[in-house]
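Q: Convert this sequence to structure tokens.
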Amino acid sequence: NLWEGKARKMALTLRDLGIITGYEDGTLRPDQPITRMEAASMIYRVLSFLGKLPALEQNNKEW
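A:
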């Protein structure tokens, strides 16, 4: 079972760091697929944690 051992420990560490938040009932569901929004949220939180968020300019013509 992948959820046992190192994978479980890593998921709980990511939860403790605020990278993943789990569900409203406090559970993590490792066998359930994640949505694009959830993946984007995790990427954002990792970049924020690492201090690597790019500065966005509101007047940027390339957007």
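DSSP finds two helices and no strands in the chain.
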